[in-house]
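Structure tokens please, single chain.
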Amino acid sequence: MSAPGAPIPFLRSERALVRALWVIGLIPVVYILTHALLVSRNVAYWDELDTALLLLLRLDSDPSWSEVIANLFAVGNEHRTFTSRLLFATSYWTTGTINFAIIGAIGNLFICALCGLLIATAGTPVRRLRMGVLLAFLIFQLEHYENFQWSGASIDHFQVVLLAGSSVIGLSRGTRGGFLAGMLFALLATFTLAHGLVAWVVGAITLGVGLSSYEKLILSAGINQQNFLGTGNALGFSVNTSRLNRSIGLSFTDPYFTADGISRSFDLYTRRFNASALN
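Here you go.
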């Protein structure tokens, strides 16, 4: 029997488990970041010769503002790395040079910021802890070896993941501010790497969860493709299901059905109501 005022045994073991999970989660993070710091060098590698250094030469030639903007948005290696180039240009305008070791550190901070954002929005403290441990081991793998140690990779690859993730989180808030933030982050992700286009695909897929005193758990999902297969037509599909109702809808719109710009739309749907569930 425990003495008065003594910690309850199961609470004591739960706290020990929480501390152990924190230590387990921090080990891979500390290892990766320490290793990345030790191998960091202020050296331009292959891709930086075509991106950062070439951009510096163009900025140093006293270009007009229109030429600066054109250089920032130019396509390079099938990507428009506007956000990274803007970071390079800002470093050049403020310090007169680019320190690739610092650029690499900023790139690594991008993935740390995304992990922090996901943990902060995970919900309860227990879910945040689980999310933190999961993310710690996700970044501890060989696929990220190049990104952590090479500034040319981290500044693009980690940044686009942060922007796309922030876009999805913003859209999931369901508020006007979250929607505007999600659109802004999706736009920035698009102009970081071509991979950033996934933010628009995910944003077009809406998922919803609701609760009702009668219908209990309500689930909804939908997708709306405005340029289906490049035809210019819009195709939408939605599903809603609960204890009482289940509906499926399909919509199709041809925005230019006639030469005068008259559109034509079709909507197909089915709905089932389960009256017996009211009993």
